[in-house]
Structure formats: structure tokens, C-alpha cells
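FAQ

Q: What does a record look like?
A: Structure on top, sequence underneath. For example:
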């Protein structure tokens, strides 16, 4: 099969830098990324970054993505997304056929995934998940802690046996393990966009509680991660928290709710060694 021909793989690899390959891996992991997200993940600016300014990093990201598109490694999604606070829009990217074939071939995997133009709801949610992950990565650079695991779907799915029999899958948006020299923090992340009614949120909470009651995660890791609901604003976070507390059948201690900024301090509760106290 041509996809697994070592010579063709080597020829494709000659077209890529190490950073190019990381961009392809990011697109495979997160499924969709806009140009700004690619920049945040792979073109850091300022202290410790490769670029002296945001504009320099942005130009480099756009130039590299255009080159990868020209080689057939990445493709534009039909929809564009707004740039918050800037009144403009930007391109959304996904892996193209050559990019996916290369990554699969390097792992010795056959076949390829079929790509379709995503719905607006899927696109917005997928990008919000990636934005949260990018914020965590940026915080790790700043505060110098480690991200031991950053799993996306479907890698992070947890299958377990229900109390009454039958297999169930818990599907977090992200599964994260962070650490400093003294401790580790384990979290399941749920990105809420205020598009679901509270009963749907509570149903997902019950699924987390079922998984906790199964003991599957505790048997493997010796603990159960916090289930973190990330809301678009504090009002929505308070509504989710109140709904969880008011449901007497739920173990509210399993759940944390807040905005992205507030929950990052829970997912990674570490102080920068260079920060003044």
C-alpha cells in the first residue's frame, strides 16, 4: 500500500520541519484549529518564545500554514470564525489527506478518516476545547509546571460497567494531568457554551457519578479526577453549580464549576517559581 511505502514517507518527511510535524499532530489531536490557535500552540512570543512580538508570530504562523496547505498537508474549513474583540475573522484548519496519511503511516496504521465540513455547533465547541487546552499550555510555560497528560476525544474515553450491567462510555472533552515537583492534579474537563439545558448538564454529571461509583478510575490511578465544568461566564457557572447542589442525588463534591480563567487555577494550582509573593 502506497501510504505505508517507507520511501514515500521519507519523501514527505523531507518537506516538513519538526515544528511542521507538531502542527500536524496538533490538528490530529484537536481536529480543528484556527490560525490564532496554531500560533498560540507552536509560535510562542515574548520571554521564552521564538518571536519577539505577537504580530511576528502571527505572520510566521500564516506563512507556515500556507506552505503546508500548498503541499496538501492541511486544508481550510469552509467556515471562518470571529476573532474576539477585533471585528475580523480568520481561517479554520484541519488535516488534509496527505497530512493524515503521513501521521498514520508513521504509526503503521492503515486507512484514513473521512473529513466533512463540520456543523457550526461542532466547530465552535471544538475550537473552545482547543482554546482551553492552549490556555493551559501557555500557563505551563509561564508558571513552569508539567502537563503529564492532555488527552482529547476519543483517546480520553472511559469505558466501564454499569451497576445494572452493560458497558457505558464516559466522554470528557479533555482529560488532564498536571504536576509540579510536589504534586499531581487530575481533571476531567467539560466545556460548556450555554447551548445545553441544565437537565442535559445534570445527565452528564450523573454519568460522571456512575463512573466514580464503578471504581474503575480509582483502581487504575488511585484517585478520581475532579470533573470541571468550564462556563462562558460566571453567571452560567453559578447556575450550573446551583443545579448540581440542588440535586440531592448528586455528589456535588465531585464537580467544580467556573470560567476558563478560574478553573485553570484548579486544573493547575501551581505558582510560578519566578513570581513575586
Amino acid at each position: 500500500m502506497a501510504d505505508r511505502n517507507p520511501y514515500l514517507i521519507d519523501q514527505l518527511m523531507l518537506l516538513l520541519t519538526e515544528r511542521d510535524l507538531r502542527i500536524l499532530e496538533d490538528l490530529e489531536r484537536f481536529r480543528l484549529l484556527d490560525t490564532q490557535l496554531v500560533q498560540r500552540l507552536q509560535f510562542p512570543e515574548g520571554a521564552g518564545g521564538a518571536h519577539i512580538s505577537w504580530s511576528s508570530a502571527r505572520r510566521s504562523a500564516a506563512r507556515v500554514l500556507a506552505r503546508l496547505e500548498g503541499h496538501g498537508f492541511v486544508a481550510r474549513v469552509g467556515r471562518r470564525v470571529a476573532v474576539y474583540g477585533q471585528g475580523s475573522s480568520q481561517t479554520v484548519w484541519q488535516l488534509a489527506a496527505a497530512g493524515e496519511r503521513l501521521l498514520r503511516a508513521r504509526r503503521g496504521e492503515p486507512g484514513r478518516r473521512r473529513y466533512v465540513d463540520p456543523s457550526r455547533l461542532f466547530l465552535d465547541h471544538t475550537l473552545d476545547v482547543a482554546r482551553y487546552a492552549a490556555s493551559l499550555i501557555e500557563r505551563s510555560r509561564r508558571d513552569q509546571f508539567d502537563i503529564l497528560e492532555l488527552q482529547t476525544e476519543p483517546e480520553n474515553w472511559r469505558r466501564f460497567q454499569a451497576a445494572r450491567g452493560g458497558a457505558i462510555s464516559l466522554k470528557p472533552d479533555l482529560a488532564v494531568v498536571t504536576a509540579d515537583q510536589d504534586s499531581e492534579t487530575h481533571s476531567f474537563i467539560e466545556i460548556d457554551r450555554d447551548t445545553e439545558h441544565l437537565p442535559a448538564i445534570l445527565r452528564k454529571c450523573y454519568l460522571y457519578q456512575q463512573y466514580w461509583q464503578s471504581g474503575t478510575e480509582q483502581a487504575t490511578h488511585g484517585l478520581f479526577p475532579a470533573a470541571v465544568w468550564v462556563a462562558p461566564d460566571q453567571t452560567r457557572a453559578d447556575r450550573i453549580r446551583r443545579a448540581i447542589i440542588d440535586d440531592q442525588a448528586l455528589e456535588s463534591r465531585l464537580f467544580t464549576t467556573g470560567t476558563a480563567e478560574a478553573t485553570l487555577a484548579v486544573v493547575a494550582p501551581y505558582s510560578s517559581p519566578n513570581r513575586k509573593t
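Q: Is there anything notable about this one?
A: Residues 198 and 240 are 7 Å apart (CA to CA).
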